[in-house]
Amino acid sequence: MPVPVSQMWTVASYVLRQKLAGRKQYPLVLMLEPLFRCNLACAGCGKIQYPAHILKKDLSPEECFRAVDECGAPMVSIPGGEPLMHPQIGEIVEGLVARKKYIYLCTNALLLKEKIGLFKPSKYLTFSVHLDGQREEHDLAVCREGGYDIAVDAVREALKRGFRVTTNTTLFDGANPKSVRAFFDEMMELGVEGMMLSPGYSYDKAPDQKHFLGRARTRRMFRAILSNRKKEWQFNLSPLFLEFLMGKKTYPCTPWGMPTYNVFGWQKPCYLLQDGYAETFSELLATTEWSKYGTESGNPACANCMVHSGYEASAVHATFNSLGGFLATVKGTLFSRYRDDEALRMLEEPVAAVNPLVQIAATHQAESLQETRV
Ligand code: SF4
């Protein structure tokens, strides 16, 4: 089982309560960004390019608790920046555990061994360790040689101490499906609870603008990777979201399902775009022009997006929206290995050689990213 039964029950009962209350827009996971500072400078990141005075800012624990209480989502993801660089991260996590929120603390793990004493193992706390593939692929993606070995060492330490640990992998154009599948084997052998996946989003602030995936290529790549699954692989994602990535399902974007709160306030409309901020969660819901977003909207910023922060809540909604959705989720979780001969053949296709380690350039290369909206 990729997540504890108590967590599944908490989420399922929460979603059913929202449905019974007739709420059309409800949050499932709060994306809480307590800072933007980081100890890496990944080429595909759009979060660390703020000016120094913004990068110095931290959300206080009280601001974090207010946002969590106001939002009411049962799960809180803490990305950044690197949350372990926040001077009060131990206090923030302790306060959220006391509120019985299921927390995914997203970290590159460079500081995890050093800071692990700040935390106590709990069913409410999971370290979601950023690993973008096998050693060479990960070090290339995070622009840091040795990053993979440090992260894997930290995962071992966290598991030894009894913490829940998942991996969190972003895949860009040029990812080698065979290598990604070998990476899944490595992570399962390492003992992580489950794996999260997302295609990279084409942040206009990211230094490397060449390797973001269009929708058609995203589906093809995930079909090759996720078909013919090994039964040992556990994913910490909705099975219907994985089917969405493979091109087996289509969903509209529901960005209110994973709202973002950071040092600027409640970000409109989602974790990826910044079309203004609201002071409160209810103001975010009431004042965002939601129809301007999502692939169907015609908004070019959304044209190639398939990321979990826009579409995983849609997949969870689909699970509880009909008996068919529920049965498809059960089948995807327990039974289906997604046999697909064409996908097996795709694994044998040649892939481009891995580039040398990316060095961060000072200028951004703006290229058209709207490969396809199909
Ligand atoms: S499609 Fe992607 S970028 Fe657009 S609103 Fe949804 S999550 Fe944000």
Explained architecture:
It is built from 14 helices and 9 strands. A 9-stranded mixed sheet has the order 6-5-4-3-2-1-7-8-9. The protein has helices spanning 5-20, 52-55, 61-71, 89-98, 112-115, 135-141, 147-160, 177-190, 215-226, 239-245, 281-287, 308-321, 323-334, 341-346, and strands spanning 29-32, 75-78, 102-107, 125-130, 164-171, 194-199, 260-262, 265-267, 277-278. With 374 residues, it is an alpha/beta fold. Residues 354-374 have low confidence and may be disordered. Bound molecules: iron/sulfur cluster. Iron/sulfur cluster binds next to helix 12.
What is the overall number of helices?
Answer: 14
Portion of residues in beta strands equals: 5-15%
Summarize the amount of helix as a percent range: 25-40%
Uncertain stretches of 5 or more adjacent residues: 354-374
Ligands bound to this protein structure? iron/sulfur cluster
Main sheet specs: 9 strands, mixed
Query: What general form does the structure show?
Result: globular
Mean pLDDT across every amino acid position: 88
What is the string of SSEs from the N terminus onward? HEHHEHEHEHHEHEHHEEEHHHH
Which structural category fits the helices and strands?
Answer: alpha/beta
Count every beta strand, where a strand is a DSSP E run of 2 or more residues: 9
Order of neighbouring strands in the sheet with most strands: 6-5-4-3-2-1-7-8-9
Q: What is the CA–CA distance across the termini?
A: 34 Å
Radius of gyration: 19 Å
